[in-house]
From TrEMBL:
Keywords: Membrane, Mitochondrion, Mitochondrion inner membrane, Repeat, Transmembrane, Transmembrane helix, Transport. It comes from the Eukaryota. Belongs to the mitochondrial carrier (TC 2.A.29) family. This is Mitochondrial carrier. SUPFAM superfamilies: Mitochondrial carrier. Its main location: mitochondrion. Residues 7-22 have a biased composition (Pro residues). Pfam families: Mito_carr (PF00153). Residues 23-34 have a biased composition (Low complexity). The chain crosses the membrane at residues 102-119, 207-226, 246-264. Residues 1-35 are annotated as: Disordered. It is a multi-pass membrane protein. The keyword Lipid biosynthesis does not apply.
Amino acid sequence: MTKLPTPVLPATPPNPELPLQPVPSTSPQQQQQQASAKHYKGFVAGVFSGIAKLAVGHPFDTIKVRLQTSSSTRFSGPLACLTSTIRNEGIFGLYKGATPPLVGWMFMDSIMLGSLTFYRRLISTNFFPSYHPPNDPFLPPAVIPLPTYAHGLAGILSGCTVSFVAAPVEHIKARLQTQYSSSKSDRLYTGPIDALRKIYKYHGIRGIYHGLGATLIFRGCFFFWWGSYDVFSRWMRNNTSWSAPVINFWAGGLSAQVFWVMSYPSDVVKQRIMTDPLGGGLGDGERRFRRWREAARAVYKENGPKGYWRGFLPCFLRAFPANAMALVAFEGVMRALPE
């Protein structure tokens, strides 16, 4: 009887919002010789892909956050918000709060993907040591063999882990994005460092982590992201002749859209909490929301059920162009850098 090969535990599938590096075609010896060069190139290309994603995607995010945190009397919709922002603050008004995510994404993505791999291995080893996906004869060794709900569970755990880095990054970003004045002298915060300094001075580390609970709820929806990623990628492996990078790209993009559809209402509540005045010596107003449910009720009271979807269009439109530009930048830099 022929002995079946032992399944190889995988590396994590790539973040759907990050570009994908083509699978190397070199021999193992050549790969070992070029390892240091590839790490260097991958890091540099990743930085440029992050810049490209930010350049394309951040204006959409600014419009999204402003719609989420304002009433319909201020902006009737995405187009009104866009034209008002450009008219009053110029094109750079769309890039307010861009620095925190530019710096934070490198750490956030690394922690998210690293912890996702760890939790998948942990779940696979302890609960599904002999699991083989049904009707999936094309399962590549780079995919951890787990049922879909287990991939979703690993997503929840990784989302909660990365929340401790994401919460302060998103908090500062949201505060800067909702400053409407075109003059720096009229703004409470002149930039991310100033925001950190002032918030920490009057509210300490707890103020920096304002909105952590809401972030945990929002990123707990990674269940839908990574669960649907497994569903899409498995279907594509069985029903198309696409290469692994193409499958990863489309499965990643589609699963990211599933994630946003399922998580968007919680993102609206999170942004309300993160832009709520902290009060005290900061002098930014009186705090409205002490608990997550108070913010959720306020959204419903102001706009009804549709309030939980305010700003969804720019969020939905952002995903694919930002991802595509990140991919173009990543591959271009990888080709341009010397070996």
